Amino acid sequence: MTNSASGQPPLIRARGLTKTFGDRTAVAGIDFEVRDGEFFGFLGPNGAGKTTTMRMIAGVSPRTAGELEILGRDPDRDGSLIRAQIGVVHQQETLDMELSVRENLLIFGRFFGMPRPAIAARADELLELFQLADRAKDQVEPLSGGMKRRLSIARSLIASPRILMLDEPTTGLDPQARHLLWDALQRLKRGGTTIVLTTHYMDEAEQLCDRLVVMDEAKIVAEGSPRQLIEQHASREVLELRFPGGTENLDAAVLEGIGDRYERLAERVIIGCENGEAAHARALEHGLSPESWLVRRSSLEDVFLRLTGRSLDE
Ligand SMILES: Nc1ncnc2c1ncn2[C@@H]1O[C@H](COP(=O)(O)OP(=O)(O)O)[C@@H](O)[C@H]1O
Ligand SMILES: [Mg+2]
């Protein structure tokens, strides 16, 4: 068994993990490990195989082939033991709309057979963590989409599972609701919960994940921290030069000399480079006079484009 840097065995370990539906291969022999306390992501476009992988980890869908170990156990043999230690949040809300926010948490605690005082204490802690304390007595129905999503996640945590699994947790939420949710998840992670998330949003993966795998067409195409992935597959910064009069007359030899690589668009030149400010200075030295310019950090978007030749936008 491979151990993580800390010497602890991984909480989740997959080798050659495979799932087929008839002659369709949804997950084609993937390897990954999730370590204790880590925020781990599966990033990829629709149909990549993320949900199928999550369902195998959560012990609700048997694998077709390969090895899978969750908390040292085989989900084929110890499914119910594993399910008791994993909190799972699906994309669809399954909250009880007629109960109050707090009652939704209490009821779930009773499903787990927790003692009442322990349920109440944990419920209040989670209401605080997910910024729902002032809505505790309100009915669920009129809450915003973001609040409902936070409540679903809080509910899955009532029995303090070792691992929280989130499938596309911010799809359909507005930017402010996403940020509130991200903040709550980061606080939760600091409290020691291991979190596994799928997303097709690159900014979400970049903001939240300690480590992630990029999935495309049932396979893992890259793995690492957001920073490592960007370092490995993209330049550190991007310099964008804007030429409203068009870029076709710019000298290719000059553009090549500015950074590591460049792309010529109709009115912009995009230059991948180590240091955008220095590249800008070189551009001016070489006689370029863009109307405006900006420097940005390379993102996972640039990584995904380079790895797959496609954008994640659908
Ligand atoms: N129950 C199923 N039966 C048949 N095909 C499925 C089933 N679930 C998923 N698939 C197929 O497996 C592939 C991966 O799906 P999924 O894991 O849902 O991807 P993602 O979550 O990354 O969007 C897709 O081609 C999907 O159509
Ligand atoms: Mg999915």
Summarize the structure.
This protein is an alpha/beta fold and 314 residues long.
What does this 3D model show about the protein?
The protein has 314 residues and is an alpha/beta fold. The chain folds into two domains: 12-225, P-loop containing nucleotide triphosphate hydrolases (Rossmann fold), CATH 3.40.50; 235-297, Alpha-Beta Plaits (2-Layer Sandwich). It contains eleven helices and 13 strands. Helix 3 (101-111) runs parallel beside helix 5 and helix 8 (226-233) crosses helix 11. The radius of gyration is 23 Å and the shape is globular. The chain starts with 11 loop residues before the first strand and ends in a 6-residue tail after the last helix. The structure holds adenosine-5'-diphosphate and magnesium ion. Adenosine-5'-diphosphate is lined by residues 21, 24, 26, 44, 46-52.
